[in-house]
């Protein structure tokens, strides 16, 4: 009886997920039927004019990939030092705990508050530095996204860095290596794929971020040509256009949701796979 | 003096537990316990000795069917508790009749000392009056010699006690249900020598009311407290007789080698 | 000999420079946190008064008049507060039992194939962007019922909480010594009794911490609520009507220039709420450690 209940809860989780996939696919059926999967994916048209409606996801897919990868690159110079700081140099000390909780707090701030801060503080700065005409755009969004994913990237990397066995490090020290050389020749190679997995999972986070990006990217339907350009991402186009959507447009938005679901699922799956391999070793 | 046996009287003692052709396997075709036949006498201490991996804990845990937690383990043969085959009985009933004490003290962390002693009643939903409860707690704690040490802090968590006290609390928890047999799986292996000695003395007292089957890899412990001893090796019951005989005049060569410290 | 020492020296310098770099860049990470909190505090503290918690959001006109007169904007976020509480409560009621039961099953059969599948699916759910969850719940609840509702919002939050609860339950139960379960069973108690009366109470601290952290995570979620609960300008107790929430109100204030003054105090309050939940979770985790 009780075992049945436990089993039932698990089955429910599986059913929920299956139903999620089903409703995404069935919801986007109309859009894919109208335009075809590949035309929908690779077309950058987005024209809601009644009679000649034309929808495609490409502008949003590129906007999402640009902002997320740029955020990933921007976050490395900060998350990697934090990971080394908490996982190697000051492992298990008070100061590492302090830095750790600061980073935790960064993870706790809601997306919309990041968006506000980006809008009211970062945008004017970007404008005055001449990095962007209106302050909005790919670069602004990426900077905020980078701050948002630092906690994810650094905590996972730190976990793997701290798991590097002491014997290996001591081996290198005994040959006269400096700490930097130990980090370079022992810590990074051993923890490497775990660190990599941390960044892959952080990328997964960035891809799905909605509110902060919606408030900062400018929401123009175009493929961004430069860092200062405005654009749109898959998540933010759903958030922005959903309110007035019905029929074919709604179906197209759901189709974008499905694409986003697939992309994040693949990225997360890869990240977990690399991580499990590293843990299993 | 404890160990001098009146064999005539012994044979009149009722057998609480009997193993008949007991075989236990973890993986298909590999036996962890092979064809064990033995009878455990009432109100005595029987020790099971042997090198690690010889199947002694496995045999002990077959009595209260703890193996059922691991579906891959198969048990055949008959294990008779008061003449009834435990493998045919309801598992929960068996476990109420056969108390168990584990290697590491494991009082329930969320319960007070008082509740820990009564845990068997509580978890089985057996209702007892307030007065009876107090009596059971006092009696059980007295049985294990813990009453005087904890009577003023019965409502505190058991986890504040020392290791030896915790283990005695766990024994009290098992004793509270008045089991027919007490199964002990190396109960002192996690304790220091002084705490161990206290528990050994207490077991000799407990013997007056209970039948005890104890697994130990400590030969001197077996010699000190047990009436009968089993020696197991590679899943086989090599030798089983009264403790004095097994230590002074073992019949099997393997027993002799083990007791003289040649392996283990 | 000379080159040797200079090589040594340059290695030493590189090592020191790298170390300094690690420290400096780690420290820099705190800057955005400080800046964000500073901005929210500076601009938000003035509005945090009694009526902020007890009154509904003002309309645009009232706010404009007050701002022009140099007063504080009247009204508050009571509608969002009530909505957030109701929807999080619904999410807890739905997600916690299911999540804990599934988590128990995973920790009881860690190696089984079925558990592996459930675990992967829970991870998939956890990695799904919250806006996609919003889209899905729109299709499941809003469309069939014909209206945006707090109920839909609660379910969306529950979907976000579920994988977090499953995971924290499994991790907590894994930490308990196996002998605890055996001790319970050895006393003759049934499987369900041992789990419900021995294991779960022992794991209480970890489970509660997990629930608090999950609540603090979904409390700031905006995107899925835009697609499900929509928002409301008055306090709404009927869960089948559109409902507001604190983050939704921030979004509304952000979109109405006259109400922009309320953005910061609402954000400040939301941040404080999340911070308090996190601190509480940490305290409980420390106190109830088995």
Number of helices of chain B: 12
Name the quaternary structure: heterotrimer
Distance between the termini of chain A: 39 Å
Say which CATH homologous superfamily of the domain at 7-106 and 181-259 in chain B is assigned.
P-loop containing nucleotide triphosphate hydrolases
CATH class assignment of the domain at 7-106 and 181-259 in chain B? Alpha Beta
User: Widest sheet of chain B: strand order?
Assistant: 6-7-8-3-9-10
Cα-to-Cα separation, first versus last residue of chain B: 29 Å
Structural class of chain B: alpha/beta
- Report the biggest beta sheet of chain B as strand number plus sense, adding barrel if it closes: 6 strands, mixed
The portion of residues assigned to helices of chain B is 25-40%
Q: Please compute the radius of gyration of chain B using only Cα atoms.
A: 18 Å
Helices and strands of chain A, in N-to-C order? HHEEHHHHHHHHH
What radius of gyration of chain A results from the CA coordinates?
A: 22 Å
Q: Assign an overall shape of chain A.
A: globular
Average pLDDT, all residues of chain A:
92
CATH topology of the domain at 7-106 and 181-259 in chain B: Rossmann fold
Describe the 3D structure.
The complex is a heterotrimer of chains A (281), B (264) and C (290). Chain A has eleven helices and two strands. By secondary structure, chain A is an all-alpha fold. Chain B has a domain at 7-106 and 181-259: Rossmann fold (3-Layer(aba) Sandwich). Chain B is globular and about 55 Å long. The model of chain B is unreliable at 1-10 (pLDDT under 50). Chain C has two domains: 2-47; 78-287, MetI-like (MetI-like fold), CATH 1.10.3720. Chain C has helices at residues 2-28, 30-44, 50-54, 60-68, 78-108, 113-127, 130-145, 150-175, 178-186, 191-202, 204-219, 223-226, 246-255, 261-287. Chain B binds chain C through residues 64, 66, 69, 92-97, 99-100, 102-104, 106, 108-110, 119-120, 122-125, 170, 173-174, 177, and chain C through 177, 179-190, 193-194, 197-198, 201-202, 204, 290.
Q: How would you briefly describe this protein structure?
A:
The complex is a heterotrimer of chains A (281), B (264) and C (290). Chain A is mostly helical and 281 residues long.
């Amino acid at each position: 009886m009780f075992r049945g209940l436990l089993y039932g809860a698990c089955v429910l989780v599986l059913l929920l997920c299956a139903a999620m996939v089903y409703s995404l696919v069935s919801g986007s059926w109309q859009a894919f039927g109208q335009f075809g999967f590949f035309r929908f994916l690779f077309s950058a048209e987005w024209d809601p004019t009644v009679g000649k409606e034309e929808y495609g996801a490409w502008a949003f897919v590129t906007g999402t990939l640009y902002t997320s990868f740029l955020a990933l690159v921007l976050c490395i110079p900060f998350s990697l030092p934090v990971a080394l700081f908490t996982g190697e140099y000051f492992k298990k000390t008070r100061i590492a705990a302090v830095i750790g909780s600061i980073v935790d707090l960064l993870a706790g701030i809601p997306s919309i508050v990041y968006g506000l801060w980006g809008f009211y503080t970062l945008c004017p700065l970007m404008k005055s530095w001449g990095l962007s005409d209106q302050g909005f755009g790919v670069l602004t969004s990426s900077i905020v996204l980078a701050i948002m994913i630092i906690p994810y990237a650094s905590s996972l990397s730190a976990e793997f860095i701290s798991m590097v066995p002491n014997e290996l490090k001591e081996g290198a020290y005994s040959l006269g290596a400096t700490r930097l050389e130990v980090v370079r020749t022992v810590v990074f190679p051993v923890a490497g794929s775990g660190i990599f997995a941390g960044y892959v999972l952080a990328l997964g986070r960035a891809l799905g971020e909605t509110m902060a990006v919606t408030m900062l990217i400018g929401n123009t339907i175009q493929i961004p040509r430069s860092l200062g350009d405005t654009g749109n991402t898959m998540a933010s186009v759903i958030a922005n256009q959903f309110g007035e959507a019905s029929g074919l447009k709604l179906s197209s938005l759901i189709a974008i949701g499905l694409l986003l679901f697939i992309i994040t699922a693949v990225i997360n799956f890869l990240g977990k796979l690399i991580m499990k391999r590293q843990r299993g070793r | 003096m404890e160990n001098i046996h009146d064999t005539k009287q012994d044979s009149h003692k009722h057998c609480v537990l009997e193993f008949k052709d007991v075989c236990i396997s973890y993986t298909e075709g590999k036996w962890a316990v092979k064809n064990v036949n033995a009878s455990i006498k009432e109100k005595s201490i029987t020790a099971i000795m042997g090198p690690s991996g010889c199947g002694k804990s496995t045999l002990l845990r077959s009595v209260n069917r703890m193996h059922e937690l691991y579906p891959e383990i198969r048990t055949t043969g008959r294990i008779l508790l008061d003449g009834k085959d435990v493998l045919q009985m309801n598992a929960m009933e068996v476990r109420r009749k056969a108390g168990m004490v584990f290697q590491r003290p494991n009082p329930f962390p969320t319960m007070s000392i008082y509740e820990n002693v009564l845990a068997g009643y509580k978890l089985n939903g057996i209702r007892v009056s307030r007065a009876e409860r107090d009596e059971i707690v006092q009696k059980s704690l007295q049985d294990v010699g813990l009453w005087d040490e904890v009577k003023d802090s019965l409502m505190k968590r058991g986890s504040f006690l020392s290791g030896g006290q915790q283990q005695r609390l766990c024994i009290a928890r098992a004793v509270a249900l008045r089991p027919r047999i007490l199964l002990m799986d190396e109960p002192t292996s996690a304790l220091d020598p002084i705490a161990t000695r206290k528990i050994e003395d207490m077991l000799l007292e407990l013997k007056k009311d209970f039948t005890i089957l104890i697994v130990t890899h400590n030969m001197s412990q077996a010699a000190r407290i047990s009436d009968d001893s089993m020696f197991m090796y590679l899943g086989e019951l090599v030798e089983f007789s009264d403790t004095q005989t097994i230590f002074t005049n073992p019949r099997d060569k393997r027993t002799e080698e083990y007791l003289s410290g040649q392996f283990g | 000999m000379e080159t040797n020492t200079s090589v040594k020296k340059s290695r030493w310098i590189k090592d020191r420079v790298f170390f300094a770099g690690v420290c400096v860049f780690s420290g820099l990470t705190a800057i955005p946190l400080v800046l964000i909190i500073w901005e929210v505090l500076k601009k938000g503290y003035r509005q945090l008064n009694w009526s902020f918690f007890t009154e509904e959001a003002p309309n645009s006109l009232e706010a404009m008049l007050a701002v022009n007169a140099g007063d504080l904007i009247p009204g508050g976020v009571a509608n969002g507060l009530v909505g957030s509480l109701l929807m999080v409560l619904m999410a807890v009621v739905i997600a916690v039992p299911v999540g804990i039961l599934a988590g128990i099953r995973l920790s009881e059969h860690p190696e089984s194939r079925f558990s592996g599948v459930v675990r992967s699916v829970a991870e998939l759910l956890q990695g799904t962007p919250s806006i996609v969850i919003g889209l899905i719940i729109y299709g499941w609840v809003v469309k069939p019922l014909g209206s945006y509702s707090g109920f839909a919002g609660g379910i969306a939050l529950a979907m976000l909480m579920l994988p977090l609860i499953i995971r924290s339950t499994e991790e907590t139960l894994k930490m308990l010594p196996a002998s605890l379960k055996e001790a319970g069973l050895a006393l003759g108690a049934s499987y369900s009794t041992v789990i419900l009366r021995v294991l779960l109470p022992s794991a209480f601290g970890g489970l509660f911490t997990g629930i608090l952290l999950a609540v603090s995570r979904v409390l700031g979620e905006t995107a899925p609520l835009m697609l499900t609960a929509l928002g409301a300008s008055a306090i709404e107790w009927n869960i089948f009507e559109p409902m507001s929430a604190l983050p939704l109100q921030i979004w509304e204030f952000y979109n109405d220039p006259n109400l922009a003054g309320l953005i910061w105090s609402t954000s400040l309050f939301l941040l404080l709420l999340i911070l308090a939940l996190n601190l509480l979770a940490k305290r409980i985790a420390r106190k109830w450690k088995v």
